Amino acid sequence: MSATPKIEPIGAKVPEPRQNDPDTLARQIVEKLTYSICKHPEQARKYDWLRAVTLVVRDRIIDHWFPSTDRVRDSGDKRVYYLSMEFLIGRMLRDAINNLQLTGPIREALKRYNVELDMVELLEPDAALGNGGLGRLAACFMESMASTGVPGVGYGIRYVHGFFRQEIAEGAQVELPETWLVHGNPWEFERRDSSYEIGFGGKVLTQQEPGKPPRHVWRPAERVLAVAFDTPIVGWRGSQVNTLRLWSAQAVDPILLDAFNSGDHIGALVESNKAEAITRVLYPADSHQAGQELRLRQEYFFSAASLQDIIRRHLGENDSLDNLADKVAIQLNDTHPAVSVAELMRLLVDVHGYEWAKAWEITRATFGYTNHTLLPEALEHWPINLFERLLPRQMQIIYQINADVIREASQTGFDGAQISAISLIDEGNGRRVRMGQLAFVGSHAVNGVSALHTELMKETVFRNLHELYPERIQNKTNGVTPRRWLMECNPGLTGLLTEAIGPGFLDDIEKLRDADGLADDAAFREKFAAVKRANKGRLADLISDRLAITIDPGAIFDIQVKRIHEYKRQFLNIIEAIALYNQIRAHPEKDWTPRVKIFAGKAAPSYVQAKEIIHLANDVARVVNSDPSVRDLLKIVFIPNYNVSLAEIIMPAADLSEQISTAGLEASGTGNMKFALNGALTIGTLDGANVEMLEHLGEDNIFIFGLTADEVAQRRREAHSGRSIIDETPLLREALDAISAGVFAPESPARYHSLVSNLYNNDWWMICADFEAYWNTQRELDGLFLTQDAWQSKAVHNTARMGWFSSDRSIREYAKDIWQAGPGKVR
Ligand code: 26V
């Protein structure tokens, strides 16, 4: 047989580099319209243009994708696998065009056909494969890995339905299904050759040979196929293209022929329906463990598929799995993929014949685990009987890991209480597997996402494990990608900064510091303010178009956008708005600073209080906005369906960013960083990354109020309630009285009784406790806004000093301290 001839891919180098001038791009766009879409340019509809432009950009990405993949394989460098149930990517076209430096030429090329690039970009659906912060962080990290040269692969789930679409009907949230794939997805490539069987249920056979450890063979009762879909992630300047590999579930036998032939046409599809259900929909809760079997199936499905894929790739390039940890780092994005620890042990011991201790050494050296929340109700634990039924061998392995850990703890002198705290099995709660403990013991590094959060991890949830393994917990403060969250969403500011300090910050965002001195330059401040004003105008137009509410771009745009949750305290913000409303009416003679309070965010469909908070925001908005005595000094807006694309318009338009969580509860926050990077001032508590923002910005440039995390913990121990504070604080009492009296819901006056009575009886989230400090800080900001020079100077300092909060910095830290991979190795 003759050797296979070497075939060079067509692309960047062969036969010649692609031209990126407008002429070439225009010709290629028309070529795509003609041959890939089969439309004459004159017949082309706007979606055809989107597809054609996407395909032209995609070709250029592929040119970089092949060499990137080859480079990593040929170098033998360590790869990083980021396992995440969520990737909240948003739109991809503008990101790709920006990173390939094609914005100008493509805009030019499209103009020739009278087509606007901005219009085309807006047609793309958001890839909303995530709930909130955790999913968006994963998306920023993917982009930053590609931009900083870390060879990273993201593994996740290709949900058919991403995060639900939110509508507001009569003030209340309504959830509608999201359908991002209906028009096809030009960014993904199905890889049928990378598919794996994933088992569920069944039994474990144990073979015992004399003198040898028992051998276990898992015989699953059910099998499902995991099929890979790859999406390229292009880094800044196109230098590296990494892969996001999402798994889709399919039946091994798509149709049961026997059933079909015997006339049971529906029964013939039962298997395939059951299999496909696994990847049909994203769970829309970010604060409560769902606890359903389907969720555990999703977690195991994508973990098991990813591990098989990682091992197959490794064995294609290496002789054995002995050196797995030298070549592979796997990061667990929260506990959602934590079952991977047991699954890798199973593969090493049962399938590849490793002895237990060696397998454990490899496993621990391979995994890292990031914790994203300390909220007890969000910590994952699974009933033992469910776990055992679905994953019988993994359950045995977890028992064995647990026995080892408990033995080690006993030898260290741990007492009974300490041991039950570290145990992987929660004995007190109907016997459950604790996924946090599993992820912790199975990883060599465990990290929190801000300095404060990491310290609290050591003191609370992981106190005893931290005592047993004191070196394991470290901090990696979150970051956001400056490409999407400055360059793409705020071209006005990017242009101004480039003009003022040169383009160096585009490649090294910490160079934004060079703009710090410009805070004292009146001419620069004016230009900076003009950019903000234009961005506010753009948001005002959106609000006018979508909600028919007119707002004044001259007012303070005071914005709180994020998931709706009691700990994030949108309720505190609304109460302050009501108090302000009362004061404006009571004191019309005062010099009030006009303010627009803007809210957006989704509540988990089953989270009653969060939905009431949305309802209240809309009810208050209706009353305040239609009250002529307010004279437009206060407007309240709730923008429906918050998502990444909406965030890209909102962040650059904010004067004031609300980061007002109960201290100790927001692990980091990343919206706080996006706002400040775009020149908003922050009003916030000493929580999450706000603490580090204070350090970087300086106390003159951020507005901190309220109880500290320690003080919150102290009050909670003292069984604090709001009653006496309400009695002593007329502003607060009057606002709550108005809510209770049904001023904002005359049709249903009792609607908010339980929200209000929670404050009197308990005030668990410290809304009453923090109200006065919050009110005073807001009034201070009112005064500051009237002195525009002072305000704008602080705003400039915010942008100039936020470079450190880039996800490039976060990724370099992970690469150096946790993964020992990528450029982090040498830097
Ligand atoms: C939990 C669950 C429970 C089961 C149902 C589905 C589901 C989905 C997500 C979660 C955990 C969400 C945790 C989270 O998003 N944490 C946020 O992570 C951000 C990135 O580190 C951080 O900035 C936010 O402060 C933190 O709330």
Automatic annotation (TrEMBL):
InterPro entries: Glycg_phsphrylas (IPR011833), Glyco_trans_35 (IPR000811), Pyridoxal_P_attach_site (IPR035090). It is an enzyme of class 2 (transferase). GO terms for molecular function: glycogen phosphorylase activity; pyridoxal phosphate binding. This is Alpha-1,4 glucan phosphorylase. Its EC number is 2.4.1.1. It holds the Pfam family Phosphorylase. The keyword NAD does not apply. Keywords: Allosteric enzyme, Carbohydrate metabolism, Cytoplasm, Glycosyltransferase, Pyridoxal phosphate, Transferase. NCBIfam families: P_ylase. Its cofactor is pyridoxal 5'-phosphate. The lineage of its organism: Bacteria, Pseudomonadati, Pseudomonadota, Alphaproteobacteria, Hyphomicrobiales. It is found in: Cytoplasm. The modification N6-(pyridoxal phosphate)lysine is found at residue 674. Phosphorylase is an important allosteric enzyme in carbohydrate metabolism. Enzymes from different sources differ in their regulatory mechanisms and in their natural substrates. However, all known phosphorylases share catalytic and structural properties. Allosteric enzyme that catalyzes the rate-limiting step in glycogen catabolism, the phosphorolytic cleavage of glycogen to produce glucose-1-phosphate, and plays a central role in maintaining cellular and organismal glucose homeostasis. One of its GO terms (cellular component) is cytoplasm. SUPFAM superfamilies: UDP-Glycosyltransferase/glycogen phosphorylase (SSF53756). It catalyses: [(1->4)-alpha-D-glucosyl](n) + phosphate = [(1->4)-alpha-D-glucosyl](n-1) + alpha-D-glucose 1-phosphate. Belongs to the glycogen phosphorylase family. One of its GO terms (biological process) is glycogen catabolic process.
